[in-house]
Amino acid sequence: MLEVTTGLAVALCLALSVVHVLLIFLHVAPSNTISRHYRAEINTWVYPYFEQNWRLFAPEPQSVTRQISVRTVQSSPGGAPRVSDWFDLTAVDNAAVENSFFPSHTNQNMLRRAWDAYLDLHGSSDQPRSERALMMQEYLRNIAVDRLATHRPGAYEAVQLRVITRPIAAPGTAGLPQPSSADTRYLPWWEVELDGD
Prior knowledge:
Blueprint: H1 2-28, H2 33-37, H3 39-46, E1 64-74, E2 82-83, E3 87-88, H4 89-98, H5 106-122, H6 131-151, E4 158-167, E5 183-186, E6 190-191
Antiparallel strand pairs: 1-2, 1-3, 1-4, 4-5, 4-6
């Protein structure tokens, strides 16, 4: 019985690995009949966890810094809703990298990449126009809620994100006047269902 179970587990892992490699290949390969026909299925498998990009080989240097903050709202019986102060998610990520003996940029990159994907799919509008845009909106919201649960536990009904974008001075421009304008964007309130509700 153990041999049969082990054999089935190995066969399942092997089949899943083959399917995964095939779907990733179809995602990164030039457009063809198969990838066009199964685009929805391929994108469902690839996004957001297995997304491929080539920045490792041709990095795009950052020209701006972004400070992403979140606040919560909780209704109070017979009164105005209580809105929390802003909680700086970017500062938490930066502190985790700076204060670690073995730093990992996983969380920092997760938040930054989630915002970049949200921006690519929504532009200046905060209305999702596709399934993928809605998925990235939920992904960004879930990152914020997860970070809040770790650092500011409590009950709330909705979250709002604020993104402050500041330009980075170009190399070799020390001493020259630098752009000091910051662009602040407030995202809409997103409802949250916390565990145990």
